[in-house]
Amino acid sequence: MNNVIITEKPSVAKTIATAIGNAKAKYKNGAWVAGKWIIVPAQGHIIGLANPDKYDKKYKKWNLNDLPIIPKKFKLVVKNRKVYSNIKKYISKASLVVNACDAGREGELIFREIITLAKPKAKLGRLWLQSLTRNEIITEVKRMSDLSKYNSLAESAWARSYADWIVGINATRAFTVKVGKLYTIGRVQTPTLVAIVEREELRKKQKVSFYYQLVGTFHSNIYKGTYSIDFNKQEDAEKIATLLKNKDFKIDKFKERTVSLHPQLLYDLTSLQREANSKLKLTAQQTLNIAQKLYELKLTSYPRTDSRYITTDLVKTVTTTANKISR
Q: How would you write the chain as a 3-class SS string?
C-alpha cells in the first residue's frame, strides 16, 4: 500500500513530488508518483457546508418564520466531484494519508473536510510546510507529525466555518425578506464594510486646518532648532521669524543619550499588505497574490500567517540565507 499526500494546490503537489522523488517524479492519473509516495492535489475547498434545503426542503423558500436556521449537525457536500473522486480513489487504498495543505487554519479545514466524507482507514499524518524549498520538504517529511497534534486547530477551523454559515445564512435571509431586496450579510464582510463606511463619513466631515512651525538653521546646516510654540496663523510665525532673524544664539545646555532599537519584526500578512499599499499602492489582494506566487517559487515562506516570528527550526535556514544575501 502507498503513502498518499494531499495538497491544497496542484503547483504545491508538483513541488513536493519533485523534492521527494529527486526530480524523477511522474504525473499520471491526476496525481504525482514519487517512489512509495503519491501526491494528490486538491483545488481549495472542494467540499463545503450544505445549503439549508439539504436539511429541509421547506428552506428553499426564504421565510422569516423559519429563522434562525441552526443545524444540530452540519452536513457536507462535494463541490468538485471530479477532484474529490480522484482523491478518494487514492486514499481508500493507502496505509498513510498525509495533510500537506497550507500551514494554517484553512489548510487544516480543507483536509478535514475531505477525510470526514471519504473516511480513510489509513493512519493520518501532518506535513507542516513553512516554505517549499527542497531541504524544507525533505526535513519535514522525515519528522512528520501525527494529525491529532493539530486537532485544536481543526476545531477552530470548523467553528469559524459554522459561524460564517449561521450568520451568513440567517442574516442574509432576514435582511433580504425584510427589505425586499437581496442583501448579502457576512460575519466578517459586514462589520468590515461598516467600519469602512463610518471612516469615509468621518473623512467627508473633516475640516482642513493648518499650523506653522518656526525652524532655525545654525552653523551652516549642522544643527536645526525648532521654536517651542506652534502657530495657528502664518503671519504670527513670520512676525517672530523677523524678530529672530540674524540674531546670535547660544546653546544653554544639552543632553546626550544612547538609544537601542530592536530590529523590526518579520511581516505577517496584514503588516505586509499595509506596507505594500503605503509604498507601492498595491491592494490587499494584489499583495496576497504576489506573496503566494513567491511562496510557490520557493522565494518566501508561507504568506497566509498571523505570526511575525520564525520557529526555532528555521533559524539555521534563515541565518544561511542572510549570510548569502549579505555577501
A: CCEEEEECCHHHHHHHHHHHCCCCCEEECCEEEECCEEEEECCCCCEEECCHHHCCHHHHCCCHHHCCCCCCCCCEEECCHHHHHHHHHHHCCCCEEEEECCCCHHHHHHHHHHHHHHCCCCEEEECCCCCCCHHHHHHHHHCCEEHHHHHHHHHHHHHHHHHHHHHHHHHHHHHHHHHCCCCCCCCCHHHHHHHHHHHHHHHHHCCCCCCECCEEEECCCCEEEECCCCECCHHHHHHHHHHHCCCCCCCCCCCCCCCCCCCCCCCCHHHHHHHHHHHHCCCHHHHHHHHHHHHHCCCCCCCCCCCCCCCHHHHHHHHHHHHHHHC
In which band, very low, low, confident or very high, does the pLDDT at 305 lie, cut at 50, 70 and 90? confident
User: How confident is the model over 32-85, as pLDDT tens digits?
Assistant: 999 999 999 999 999 999 999 999 999 999 999 999 999 999 999 999 999 999
CA 56, 61, 64 angle in degrees (round to 5)?
95
8 Å CB contact between 183 and 132? no
* Among 211, 223, 302, 309, the one annotated catalytic: 302
302 flagged as catalytic: yes
Nearby residues of 198 by Cβ (< 8 Å), 6 or more positions away: none
pTM score, whole prediction:
0.78
